[in-house]
Design a protein that fits this description.
The chain is α+β, with helices and mostly antiparallel strands. The chain has a domain of 84 residues. It is built from 7 helices and 4 strands. The protein has a 4-stranded antiparallel β-sheet with strand order 1-2-3-4, with no helix packed on it. Strand 2 and strand 3 form a beta hairpin. Helix 6 packs across helix 7. It is globular and about 50 Å long. The N and C termini lie far apart (51 Å).
């Protein structure tokens, strides 16, 4: 049974040969620990691990070629090096402080949206659905996925997640309440 057939059966409430397993991803440190526990050393990326384990994972799925979220994204760059910590601008425009050799959540210092004017600028400059280059060859991608026996992924994230990344958890919570 192809991955596409498996997914179609699940979503039609029919019995597949097995339930599809889509993992969200693994931290680099987790993969390193798994190497010590027997995972082959050539499994270095999420995609490598998913293929090794026979999963349908997100890294393997062909995806609809549409830039969701901010487009163009902010340039990801290191703003400052502070010993073992780096201040990084993320693709969402946030400034974060990250430990150089750690895979935990970064410390957020500033967000792209802190005022109404910030929101209006972000909306106008980076959220226009008609912006040239936002969508690629959707029909071609769907046809290629189907020919390969794969479903096609349209990964949207979550509405709360997008807003949290642009505004910060506390700012979003206050905005929702007021």
């Amino acid at each position: 049974m192809t991955t596409r057939e498996r997914f179609n059966r699940v979503f039609r409430w029919e019995k597949p040969d097995r339930v599809p397993d889509m993992e969200f991803g693994y931290w680099d440190k987790t993969i390193a620990v798994w190497h010590e526990q027997g995972l082959p050393r050539d499994c270095r990326t999420n995609e490598d691990v998913e293929r090794h384990l026979g999963l349908e994972g997100i890294s393997i799925m062909p995806e609809v070629p549409i830039h969701k979220g901010l487009y163009p994204a902010f340039e990801e760059k290191t703003i400052e090096q502070r010993g073992e910590r780096r201040v990084v601008q993320t693709k969402d425009g946030a400034l974060t402080e990250m430990l150089e050799f750690d895979s935990s959540m970064p410390k957020f210092l500033k967000f792209a949206v802190e005022t109404r004017a910030d929101w209006e600028r972000l909306r106008d400059e980076r959220l226009d659905p008609r912006r040239l280059g936002r969508a690629g060859d959707v029909a071609g991608a769907v046809a290629a996925a189907h020919a390969a026996g794969m479903p096609i992924l349209f990964h949207c994230g979550s509405l709360y997640g997008w807003l949290r990344d642009w505004m910060g958890l506390e700012n979003l919570s206050i905005a929702l309440m007021t």
